[in-house]
Amino acid sequence: MTGTSGDGSGLSARPRRYRPPGQGRAVYRIRLADDELAELREAAGRVQMSLSGYIAEAALTVARNTRPPTQTPWRDALVHLAEASAQLRRVGGNLNQLVARFHTVGEPPARLEEVLRIVLAHAERVERAADRTAAKLP
């Protein structure tokens, strides 16, 4: 990720590269000259990827002798699905607050069970769609 948006929201300036849960946790440092870094940032920007995601994809492209990273409809869809997943996680935080209130007050907030069912159904749909889309990426 290239950092945050700078507005204090903690939101990323570019979307993250999709990784299935539990994968992609290794961190490796490289040294680049200023002009090399600028060139990689420009290339990553052209395909709307984070710098670290672009470097990882480019390195794997060389290792696998495949095509370089490009912005494809599948990648676009996967980025949108990752954003939907992040939004669902935030909704989960709000639901945790409702449940905490339920435990404090002793009565569930109106329609809590209905909202939980709806959110869980959407979360499962997003996860299935992300898995299907990731499987179609080159």
Automatic annotation (TrEMBL):
It comes from the Bacteria. InterPro entries: NikA-like (IPR053842). Residues 1-24 are annotated as: Disordered. It holds the Pfam family NikA-like. This is Bacterial mobilisation domain-containing protein.
